[in-house]
Amino acid sequence: MLDAAFIRENLDAVKSNCRNRSVTVDVDRVVSLDDDRKRLVSEAQSVQQRANELSKSIPSEKDPARKQELINEGKTLREQKTTLEKQVKQVEEDLKAILLQIPNMTHPDAPVGTTDADNKVIKQFGEPRQFDFPPKDHVALAESLDLVDFEAGASVTGQKFYFLKNEAVLLELALVQYAMTTLVKEGFTPIITPDLARVEVLEGIGFLPRDPNPETRQVYTIADTDLCLIATAEITLGGMFRDRILDEAELPKRYVGLSHCFRTEAGAPGRDTRGLYRVHQFTKVEMFAFCTPEQAEEIHLQILAIEEKIFQGLGLTYHILDTCTGDLGGPAYRKYDLEAWMPGRGDGGGWGEITSTSNCTDYQARRLNIRSKSAGQKGTRIAYTLNGTAVAVTRALVAILENYQQADGSVIVPEVLRPWVGKDRIVPKSQK
C-alpha cells in the first residue's frame, strides 16, 4: 500500500503509474479524504483540549448556575467528540479502501504495456526440442501412463481438481525435495505453512478476498469465519511477521515455504484450462524474503538466479520475461517470469509460465505493519518484501512430461529427480 503522504507529494506520478498498469481508481479522492481526516482529527483534538480544561475548572467553580453551565458544555463536548471520532473512523475506512486499490509504483526499467504481449524477453536457456515423432500433450501422456485421474477429481470435488497417481505422486514428492534441498543449501529457512489465513493477511499481501465480483475473485473463503484458503505460501510467509519490528542486523530473512495452493481461477474460462496447467489446487514451494530497501534489488536477482538453477537442473528450456506494467499485479514493483517450452501447448508447442519472482518493496509490509530498526537508529522504517516460486508442481509436471516423452510412449525422469523417484523412466502399463 502506498502512503497517503507519498501520493499527495507524487500525485501526477501515481496517476501515470495507474494508467500504465490499467488500474482505474480515483487518486484525487485520496488527497481529499486525507484532508478530511486531518481536519476531523484536529477538531477532535480541540474538543478534547476544551473538555480537559472544563474537567479541571468545574470542581473549583463556586457559582451553581455557572457550574451547571460548564457541566452542560462538558456533556455537549463529549457528544461532539463521539460524533467526530465516528466521522474520523469512517473517513479512515474510506481512505484505506481507496489506498488498497492503488498499485505499487513501478521500476523505471519495467516495460510499459497493457497485456502479456508487451512483456520483454531478456534471456533464453536452451532450444525447444525437435521431435522425430508427433509429440503428445501432458494430458494424453498422463492418461496413457496412468498418472492422473481427472474424471475422479471432477466427480469427488469438481472440474479442475484431479488425483495424482503412481509415478506422478513420486514426481511431486521428488520436485518438492529437489526444490527444498536446493533452497536450504542457498541459506533459506524451510517452513511448512498453514493452508489457511485470515482475511486481513490476504489483504495485506495484496489479494482481495472480499471482492464481491465472482468473475475476478481469486480465493476461496471459509463460510462463517474470517479465514480463506491460501492461493500461495507468499500469503502465510508474509504474514509471519505481521505487526512486528525486525532487527536490521538480522536481515535479510529468507524462507522457503511448502504449502498447498487454492485458486478459483475465476474469469479464466478457455485459458489454458486443459489438464494440469490451470487447476484449483496444487502444491508449491515458495521463496520469501524480508530485507532493507538497500538489499532488495540484489535479493531479487538472487531469487531469479535460483529459479534458473532449479529449472536448468531439470534440463528444461525456458526464457525470462521482464513483466510489463499492465501485467504486474498490484504489489509488484518489478516482476520476472520464467516460461518453459511446452511441446503439447497450442498448435506446435508454446511457452507456459512456470515461476515468477517479484520485488514488492514496502507495499506489502506497510499493509501488514512490518517494520525494521537498526541499533542506534531513531524510529523504524517499513521493511521490504520479495517472493519467488521455486517449483509450482503441476506446471513443472506439464513441462517434464511433454519435454521428456519418448517415441515408445515412455517418459524419461530428469536425472536430478531419480534418487527420489527411484527409476529413470516411466513406461506405459503394457510395457511394465
From TrEMBL:
This is Serine--tRNA ligase. Homodimer. The tRNA molecule binds across the dimer. It is an enzyme of class 6 (ligase). Catalyzes the attachment of serine to tRNA(Ser). Is also able to aminoacylate tRNA(Sec) with serine, to form the misacylated tRNA L-seryl-tRNA(Sec), which will be further converted into selenocysteinyl-tRNA(Sec). NCBIfam families: serS. It comes from the Bacteria. The record marks T389 as: Important for serine binding. Transmembrane segments: none annotated. The lineage of its organism: Bacteria, Pseudomonadati, Planctomycetota, Planctomycetia, Gemmatales. The keyword Protein biosynthesis applies. One of its GO terms (biological process) is seryl-tRNA aminoacylation. Consists of two distinct domains, a catalytic core and a N-terminal extension that is involved in tRNA binding. Keywords: Aminoacyl-tRNA synthetase, ATP-binding, Cytoplasm, Ligase, Nucleotide-binding, Protein biosynthesis. Pathway: Aminoacyl-tRNA biosynthesis; selenocysteinyl-tRNA(Sec) biosynthesis; L-seryl-tRNA(Sec) from L-serine and tRNA(Sec): step 1/1. GO terms for cellular component: cytoplasm. The keyword Aminoacyl-tRNA synthetase applies. It holds the Pfam family Seryl_tRNA_N. Its main location: cytoplasm. Residues 137-414 form the Aminoacyl-transfer RNA synthetases class-II family profile domain. It catalyses: tRNA(Ser) + L-serine + ATP = L-seryl-tRNA(Ser) + AMP + diphosphate + H(+); tRNA(Sec) + L-serine + ATP = L-seryl-tRNA(Sec) + AMP + diphosphate + H(+). ATP binds at R263, T264, E265, V279, H280, Q281, F282, E353, I354, T355, S356. Gene3D superfamilies: Bira Bifunctional Protein, Domain 2 (3.30.930.10), Serine-tRNA synthetase, tRNA binding domain (1.10.287.40). Residues 46-66 are annotated as: Disordered. It is found in: Cytoplasm. It comes from Tuwongella immobilis. L-serine binds at T232, A233, E234, R263, E286, N387, T389. GO terms for molecular function: ATP binding; serine-tRNA ligase activity.
